[in-house]
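Minutes, structural biology subgroup

Action item carried over from last meeting: produce the structure token record for DUF397 domain-containing protein (Streptomyces smyrnaeus). EB confirmed the sequence was re-checked against the source entry. Recorded below for completeness.
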Amino acid sequence: MPIQQGNTHDWTKSSYSTGNGACVEVKSPAVRTVAVRDSKEPQGPALSFRPEVWGAFVSRVSAEHSGVARA
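Output recorded by EB:
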């Protein structure tokens, strides 16, 4: 399920996560914040990003994963 900026208060496992335990979870409790954490460490630290920075990161990972690398 995609997260909605400013309206996703619960942690959601990333659709890019695999079944090997290497998972990240994301949420967006505020319009200008996307929080990211390691699902294996739910009480551990979380990183916060501006939505446009997180979107650029996800786009880059998606492009590289599909074999369409960008400069």
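Discussion: The first strand starts at residue 8 and ends at 13.
Next step: EB to file the record with the rest of the batch.
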